[in-house]
Task: structure prediction
Amino acid sequence: MGFIFLAAGVGMGVICLVTLVRTRRFLALAHETHAQVVGNHSRLHNRKPTYYPVLRYQTQEGTQHEVVSPVGSNPPRYREGAQVTLLYNPANPQQVRINNFLNLWLMPLLFGVLGGAFLLVGGLALMASSLRR
Result:
């Protein structure tokens, strides 16, 4: 059983590192601007709607864009008309993230904590089984 937990912990650790690298790479490229929430796009997940804010913003070059945030919630986190700080990739203005801790760091943090917990449980289980022998 310990090996299963260790394998799961390693897998989650890899996912943590991948999401961490992607987030850091995005932050290195990103420009900051302000965006207005112009609506919420809903998608069904497990028969329940998830609401993704539709954001309108202007790049530093003056081009206006309207994008759907990749992060959604239920209930909607942002109301129409709300102003948010937005990070966008100037090479791909459709690639955006609302600039807050959860939108940027939730996935690396979640997989890091879970991976660490699984590694700890797996290691303890293997130690306990070797002590019983």
